[in-house]
Every structure is written in structure tokens, then in C-alpha cells.
Write a structure and sequence with these properties.
By secondary structure, the chain is α/β, with parallel strands linked by helices. It has one domain: TIM Barrel (Alpha-Beta Barrel). The chain has eleven helices and eight strands. The protein has an eight-stranded parallel sheet, sandwiched between helices. The protein starts with a helix and ends in a 5-residue tail after the last helix.
Length: 293
């Protein structure tokens, strides 16, 4: 497809004015109201969760992000959080979600090393609260059986489960999951929707690892907008299993959106990735909490 610069150059060569050429260009489709699966308040200016969310929302508005998912608290980086740290982080997200209205939802941060407490925290924030998903980070690999009660509780409430994954050249941290761990978990819970965060970092391997697990979705957040990344994901998994996320403020909205908008895939696939897939996963839990969009 000819881009804007090429179109104007060709038109000028034919003696057509720039203004006439621009008027003749096909008009862009109505912008997609993007749903972002991966946002943090850490690193955003502000003393309170409300102040930080308002600043984050102002940035989101400039790039067309309509709906944000919030993970963790004011500071990101506690590898094996205590029960007190979990409570503090979840309260931060609850505060932000309270002022966000329809613009944001929260994922409850849980640590399987504190299983009983994590189930209580799930009930507080999801069953009896406004959150619609579970955030699992690097405290314990998700292939461990300790996660089974959490997954079952989430399934009862139609809450999505997001698992951070990575495959590091120098070796992962002891509790850090890989896409292989997510696949193992998915086999024990074939009816539960799981999100493989960051595509495992090494996305070429991550995509292949989860390919045969239809209940596992691939999140593309948090890496460089490398050519071929999203194209491979769509080719191997189908656009219906690929989810956009930014990992802001660790990454920018724009660089992560560019992975999708710049990919050589159909516009319909871009819409699925940027909006409809995540919206579809979250809608059952959102509707149970009064969201009618």
C-alpha cells in the first residue's frame, strides 16, 4: 500500500496539487478505542494513586487508549511480597479504579507463597470488589500446584488470570515463570483463560510454546517493536489469541501500539488485538459489576 509521502510525490509528478491529492486520499477508519492489558502507576508522577492515574489517563487520551488495566501498586519490584505488601499494592489499585469509572479495571496482585491470604485477598478485591482479574508475578512458578486453588477461585468469578513470563539468557529467577510453566498450568485447567505475559520475552519461542494450548492468550507487552513479532503471532496463533498491552510506564503506549499498527496484518486483526480480544475476556466479569459497554 502506498503511504502518504509516496502518494503526494506521485500526485505532484502528475501535476495534481497537494491539497487536491490529500482530499483524494482514502480516509482512515474510525480510530480504535484501545484496551490496554498492562499498566502500572509506578514511575508516574504524583503522591497518590489518584494523582498518578489522572496523569496516566491524560497520556492515554493522547494516543487513543480507552480502557486501562492496572497492576501492582506505587512501586514495582517486590519479588516475593509479604501479605502487608500485597494489601498495600491492592489498595492502591482499588483507589485508582474508584476514580477511574469506566476507564480502568484492576487485577488483584496475589502471591501463591501466601496461599490462604491470597484467597482471602481475591475475595476482598474480586468476589466482593471491583477487580476483574488476577496478577501473578515472580514469587512462584505458575506450574506449581499451589496455584490451583487460585485458578479455581478465579474461574468461579469469571476473572482472567495474567501470568508474567520470561526466558532469560542468564537464567530466570527461582520463582519466575516461563511460557512452558503456563502451558503446564493450562493443561490442569483447560477451561480457564490464561494470559502469557510479555510473550515470554523471547517471543519467537514463546509463541511456539503456547501454540497447542488454545486457552492460553499471548500478550505482546514490554519489548521493542520488532518487525515480524505480531505477524508471527497472528500466523501461528490466530489474531483471536493475541492481546495488546503496553507495560507503561516501563514502556511507552506509543512504542507498544506501533507493534500492532505497523504490522503487516489485516485491519480486522489489528482491531482484535488492540481492543476486542481483551474486551471479550473481561466483559463477563465487568458486566457482573455493572459495566454495560
Amino acid at each position: 500500500m502506498m503511504n502518504r509521502r509516496e502518494f503526494l510525490a506521485a500526485s505532484t509528478a502528475l501535476g495534481i496539487s497537494a491539497s487536491a491529492a490529500l482530499a483524494a486520499m482514502p480516509q482512515a477508519e474510525t480510530p480504535i478505542g484501545i484496551w490496554d492489558n498492562h499498566c502500572h502507576l509506578g514511575g508516574i508522577p504524583g503522591k497518590t494513586a489518584t494523582e498518578r492515574f489522572e496523569k496516566l489517563l491524560a497520556i492515554a487520551d493522547r494516543v487513543g487508549v480507552e480502557h486501562l488495566s492496572l497492576h501492582l501498586g506505587m512501586v514495582t519490584g517486590v519479588e516475593d511480597p509479604t501479605t502487608e505488601q500485597l494489601t498495600t499494592d491492592n489498595n492502591t489499585v482499588l483507589e485508582a479504579v474508584k476514580v477511574a469509572g469506566r476507564r480502568a479495571h484492576g487485577y488483584v496482585y496475589l502471591n501463591p507463597n501466601h496461599l490462604d491470604f491470597s484467597l482471602q485477598e481475591f475475595d476482598r478485591c474480586v468476589r466482593d470488589g471491583p477487580m476483574v482479574g488476577v496478577k501473578l508475578w515472580i514469587a512462584r512458578r505458575c506450574s506449581a500446584s499451589e496455584l490451583d486453588p487460585i485458578v479455581k477461585r478465579a474461574a468461579e468469578q469469571k476473572a482472567v488470570i495474567y501470568q508474567h513470563t520470561w526466558m532469560k539468557v542468564g537464567g530466570n529467577q527461582p520463582g519466575e515463570s516461563t511460557p512452558m510453566d503456563v502451558v503446564e498450568l493450562s493443561r490442569r485447567h483447560p477451561g480457564v483463560k490464561l494470559i502469557c505475559g510479555h510473550s515470554g520475552g523471547d517471543w519467537e519461542r514463546g509463541i511456539r510454546v503456547i501454540r497447542s494450548s488454545p486457552n492460553v492468550y499471548l500478550e505482546i507487552a514490554g519489548s521493542d517493536p520488532t518487525s515480524g513479532f505480531v505477524e508471527m503471532a497472528v500466523r501461528e496463533l490466530g489474531a483471536e489469541r493475541v492481546i495488546y498491552g503496553s507495560d507503561v510506564s516501563g514502556r511507552s503506549f506509543s512504542s507498544q501500539i506501533a507493534k500492532v499498527t505497523g504490522a503487516a496484518i489485516p485491519d480486522a486483526a489489528k482491531r482484535l488485538i488492540l481492543r476486542e480480544n481483551l474486551r471479550g475476556l473481561l466483559l463477563p466479569a465487568l458486566k457482573a459489576r455493572g459495566y454495560d459497554g
